[in-house]
Design a protein that fits this description.
By secondary structure, the chain is an all-alpha fold. The chain has one domain: MazG-like (Helix Hairpins, Orthogonal Bundle). Helices cover 67% and strands 0% of the residues. It has 4 helices and no strands. Helix 1 packs across helix 3 and helix 2 packs antiparallel against helix 3. The longest helix is centred in the middle third of the chain and has 23 residues. The radius of gyration is 17 Å and the shape is flat. The two termini are 32 Å apart.
Length: 105
C-alpha cells in the first residue's frame, strides 16, 4: 500500500462517522499519547525498565502503526499530501545533511 492509498483508506474509515476528524489539538494530544506508548514499549524491550510480571507483552510494531494512523489522520484533516511532504523532507535532508556523517564504503 502506498501513502496515497493509506490516506484514502483512513479518510474512508473516518468519514463513516458523524464526528469526522478530530480537532488538530486533539490529534496532537493523541499523537503524543501514542508516541508515549511506543516509548514505554521500547523502554521495556531495550531500556532499564523491565515489564512487571503481570503486564501483558507489548508490540512495538503495533504502536508504530498507531502513530502512523494518527499522522495520516492529521495530514488528512489539514489537507496535506504526505507523499509531497515526505519528498520535500527528503530533499531537505539531502541538501542539509549529505556530508554530515561518515558514508559507508
Amino acid at each position: 500500500m502506498n501513502i496515497q492509498e493509506m490516506q484514502a483508506e483512513v479518510n474512508t474509515w473516518i468519514n463513516q462517522f458523524e464526528e469526522g476528524y478530530w480537532h488538530p489539538l486533539t490529534l496532537l494530544a493523541r499523537l503524543i499519547e501514542e508516541v508515549g506508548e511506543l516509548a514505554r514499549e521500547v523502554n521495556h524491550l531495550y531500556g532499564e525498565k523491565p515489564k512487571k510480571p503481570e503486564e501483558p507483552p507489548g508490540d512495538a510494531a503495533l504502536e508504530i502503526g498507531d502513530i502512523l494512523f494518527i499522522i495520516v489522520c492529521y495530514a488528512n484533516s489539514l489537507g496535506i499530501d504526505l507523499e509531497k511532504a515526505f519528498a520535500n523532507t527528503m530533499a531537505k535532508y539531502r541538501r542539509r545533511d549529505s556530508d554530515r556523517w561518515t558514508r559507508k564504503d
